[in-house]
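Risk register update: the risk of archive-format incompatibility is retired. Evidence:
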Amino acid sequence: MKKPADGPGRDFSVLLSPTPRGARLARLLATEQLRAWQLPLDPAANIVAELANNAATHGRVPGRNFRLLLHVVGGTLRIEVTDTHGDRLPHPQPSAPDSESGRGLTLVSALADRWGVSRGRPPRKTVWAELTLPATESPKPEDPRPGATGAPHEPPTREKAPLQAPPLPPAGQTHSRE
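Archived output:
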């Protein structure tokens, strides 16, 4: 996928309910935003899913939402999930081979280039992950091709040549209708 030029509109933030539905919505919204920015969906969508699921499961405080933030700076995508359960800082834990849960942060650690936890204003904490975006090749200019006249093809420009009005007849003369 090609990477768009850096510019405005490279931040996405949304508040979501700390429920399984909110976690699913986080992944769907992140996927659509990544598509709009023309960025790769994987592994970012999986990281969002794990962090949002953790916020809905372990960071849940009734009546308080969690925030998903996607931010692109240069060649880095930063994913942040902030919840209001700052007294419980996450850390990867070993899980039994037959366990059905407990591998979320291990997966985030494997997929992300960097990740960590930042304390915010009480009672907030932010779990973040960063991905280095793939470099893209610059488009190569096309070779000139001869046009119908045999002259080299020149790509059109957005500038238009000024239109010239037809010449006026000399004073006292009129055009015939022939």
